[in-house]
Specification:
about 230 residues, Rossmann fold, six-stranded parallel β-sheet
């Protein structure tokens, strides 16, 4: 009997129109961040910042342990040799990527239906570039009343598919692996769930067949109702 369902955020609950790999958008995001701090960037400053961002880009350089945004942007400021307000810099950078994030049409209805059925729900998501929760959780602010637990890699200290976050999510939801599903759109979501015996569900909104070893595959969150 399923008592709880955990979810990834990006491209699972929330639709981001930006690509998963932010590399191609570093320059305009950095320019926006610089404007928010009242400065302009030279080519040398831009190149130095991009070098640091690539170092911490998990689509380029995988890491298991999470790194804080203060570490990342502290390195950028050290390279720039400037004393700027880091919070303003981070806000300008992150907001560039969050501007067009919105829940999928079926997200709210699905979470509401699960709550009415007595199914607990939670989130386990990897934060981009160590993004602080006050930034990353803005994307699911409209869902907060429908979620029992929210965990990011910043809370956990590790990124998926490391099992630590999945174990923490199970503990917080007070369920065993066979009582829980985890829904995500990437291989790391499925691998992480499978490692602990959690029932894994891949949400695949593409026309391409994907096999990561998932227990179930769905095209829409609405299909979860048929699995519980």
């Amino acid at each position: 009997m399923i008592k709880a369902i955990g979810f990834d955020v990006g491209h699972t609950l929330i639709n981001y129109r930006n690509p998963l790999n932010w590399r191609a958008l570093y320059r305009p995001a950095l320019e926006q961040a610089a404007r928010s701090c009242g400065i302009s960037l030279s080519e040398e400053m831009t190149a130095a910042a991009i070098e640091t961002l690539l170092k911490y880009n998990t689509r380029v350089n995988y890491r298991e342990r999470e790194v804080s945004s203060d570490t990342i942007f502290g390195e950028i400021l050290d390279k720039w040799q400037l004393c700027l307000d880091m919070d303003t810099l981070k806000t300008g950078f992150y907001s560039f990527f969050q501007a067009e994030a919105e829940p999928y049409p079926e997200t709210l209805d699905t979470l509401s239906t699960l709550r009415q059925a007595g199914i607990k729900t939670g989130v386990l998501t990897d934060a981009a570039y160590g993004m602080d929760n006050r930034f990353s959780l803005q994307d699911i602010a409209s869902l907060s009343g429908l979620l029992d637990v929210t965990l990011t890699s910043v809370d956990v200290g590790y990124r998926k598919p490391n099992s630590t976050g999945f174990q923490m999510l199970m503990t917080a939801l007070q369920v065993s692996p066979d009582e829980m599903m985890y829904v995500g759109d990437e291989q790391k979501d499925i691998v992480g769930a499978n490692q602990l015996g959690i029932i894994s569900v891949l949400v695949n909104r593409t026309d391409t067949t994907l096999d990561y070893g998932q227990t179930h595959t769905i095209q829409s969150l609405r299909e979860l109702q048929t699995l519980i």
